[in-house]
Amino acid sequence: MSQPQGPPPGYGQPQPQPGYGPPPAGYAGQPAGYAGQQQQGVTVVTTQPQQVVVTGGCAACGGHVSDNFTVCGIILAICFFPLGILCCFLMMEKRCDRCGATY
Fold first, then answer.
1. Cα dihedral angle (43, 49, 55, 59), rounded to 10 degrees?
2. Closest by alpha carbon to 64, among 93, 102, 92, 95?
3. Closest of 11, 17, 14 to residue 29, by C-alpha
C-alpha cells in the first residue's frame, strides 16, 4: 500500500487573490455552504396603501348592522311551525343602527 498523501490542492488556507492582501491572522476560511461570490444589489420594497375593511359594518356609514326578523317571517314561523322557522331566518332583514339603510 502507498503512504497517505496530504490534502488535495485547493484545500487548507485560502490563497491570496491578486489585488488583495493576505487574509488576517486567525482567519478561519469560508463557512460551509458559502458560494464564493457575493453580489451587491439594491432591494426596492414598495408598499401599497392598506384598506381597512370592517366586517359586519354598514357599507354607507360604517355603523353597526343588526339583524331583524320581518313581520312576514314571524307569521310564517307560527303558521308553518317546523318549516316556517327556516323561512323566518331566511327572511331576516339587516339594518344599520346609525343611518337606517337596509340590506
1. -160
2. 95
3. 14
- Given a cut of 70, whether residue 15 has pLDDT beyond it is no
Give the HSE-up count for residue 92: Cα atoms under 13 Å, Cβ half-sphere.
9
Close Cβ partners of 2 (under 8 Å, ≥ 6 residues apart): none
Lookup result for grid cell 455552504: 33
Location of C-alpha cell 432591494: 43
Cα separations (Å) of 53 from 56, 62, 81? Answer: 9, 10, 38
> CA of 27: how far to CAs of 19, 23, 24, 31, 68, in Å?
18, 6, 6, 11, 76
pLDDT in tens, 30-61: 665 555 555 677 777 777 776 655 566 888 88
Closest by CA to 36, choosing from 17, 8, 57, 56, is: 17
